[in-house]
Structures
1.
Amino acid sequence: MTAEPTTTVDDFVAGLPKCELHLHIEGTLEPGLKFALAQRNGMELPYPDEAALRAAYDFDDLPGFLTVYYEGMTVLRTEQDFYDLAAAYAAKAHAQNVRYAEIFFDPQAHTARGVAFDTVIRGLTRALDDAERATGFQGRLVMCFLRDFQAEFAMATLVQALPHKEWIIGVGLDSDEAGNPPVKFRAVFARARAEGFRLTMHCDVDQKNSTEHIRQAIEEIGVDRIDHGVNALEDPALLALVRERGLGLTVCPISNAHVTDGMKAAEIRALLDAGVKVTVNSDDPAYFPGYVAENLAALRGPAALTDEDLVTLQRNAIEISWAAPAVRERFLAALATYRD
Ligand code: ADE
Ligand code: ZN
């Protein structure tokens, strides 16, 4: 069940310079924009109003969420739709003092229903470009392959991304993890690495084979970081591997609370204490209500996060990001000033 965001964001969290690394742009499609795009595209949603739509966001696991998520994004059809989606997120990010974000997008969820790859990429990049010039907020894209589709489709999608390396800086893997292990995409990720893309992958929380998937992602794919990955805590050898390699984990507390049991606050605290480069992110904030500020604020009490911990989380984020050195330095300087 989801509801409107209710978390109160304190002044320290509000003002903190932020870096977001786990956000699906299609997961920022808020009900108001969904209705507006449906109307513009001559589609009728099977709900009378936004409240009824939100009430239908009734899921308590990953497959249940994904059904709602894919259905919701069918209103995205034109370049302008993707522009409006990314522009709305960029405005929200700027309002929350997010300085830099690496933003997931799911091109196969659009090309599979007849929307051209270029339509998606042009809309998203034009919005990010405009936002950067207007506000300084910088967004770059991480292209996710849908793991419940065939590896051949992922490979063809990777080829479509090759002319867009200026914007697409990395590749990831998302969607339904059950029966779709990292090694299914071994060749795709090897090619992506050879083409110069950075690599990440979802290892969603409390999946049937979470620890084995984390092991595969690290040892057999050679990822640069892991999305979620909290279950690494269950296996001391795996945790040691994560720590030794300095692999970041992009965790999403409010999302976790909606698809598994709770925000995983104790686990996030333990990861921080173990010196793992853990970060806090928002995943799909239109569905798991809360952007990055609300996620930090919601986690603060349950994970006993001090101001220093909040700064550490942002330092971790920029350090494991794939931002250009100048962006990284500017961010770290802002963080250092903020703490004083
Ligand atoms: N697609 C969008 N959000 C996702 C998540 N949290 N896990 C897997 N696939 C997703
Ligand atoms: Zn995700």
Note: The two ends are 40 Å apart (CA to CA).
2.
Amino acid sequence: MPTPDSLAQIASEVSACTRCALHKTRTKAVPGEGPQQAEIMLIGEGPGFNEDQQGRPFVGQAGQFLEQLLALAGLKRSDVWIGNVVKCRPPNNRDPLPEELQACHAYLERQIAVLNPKIIVTLGRFSMGKFFPTARISAIHGQMRRVGERFVIAMFHPAAALHNPTYLPLIKQDFARLPELLETARRELAQATPHPSMLAEPQPRYETSKDDSPKQMRLF
Ligand code: URA
Ligand code: SF4
């Protein structure tokens, strides 16, 4: 039987990966980190200078700010899983290229599948683009949308928000609403997951249910 995929397995593959040219200039790959039970997954863009040195996500200035933002939601760094769309630093922090995003995509997909978070928070437009390719971040930031088995909330990138007085109050507001949105996500996902007994043969029903409104169908 094949061994089930795991975060540790993915991390070890990422650390040795040569699938795109970024492997040539990296110091350390940054697979991402956080507890297996995390309900919230934060996905940034790519490692910067400090992340590349340490092999850990969001440890520089943007990372310090991210911890302050998490505190607004009553969360600690260790409560959430944190990673990036590309696992190796683009030289001089340039934008990741389409072929690099493409090459790295499968790792993120596997991390999402293994973690199965209730909420994914995308930080910045490259991460948002994985889920909402045509959306504008200023139009949809902070809104929680159902995507398959989970919810996705697009937010501004902390590094961009730190330096932009327009985004700063917006990203703070968006983080402060996370506890409320997590409650909603938990409730809706619990409802949408059929209890094992519901998968058994249907039993004849003799009583009319008090709540006979049809459960909302979800297409994705
Ligand atoms: N910015 C990111 O997008 N990711 C990091 O890991 C650090 C800074
Ligand atoms: Fe591999 Fe991703 Fe690093 Fe490219 S960025 S070398 S695909 S881990």
Note: The chain has one domain: 7-193.
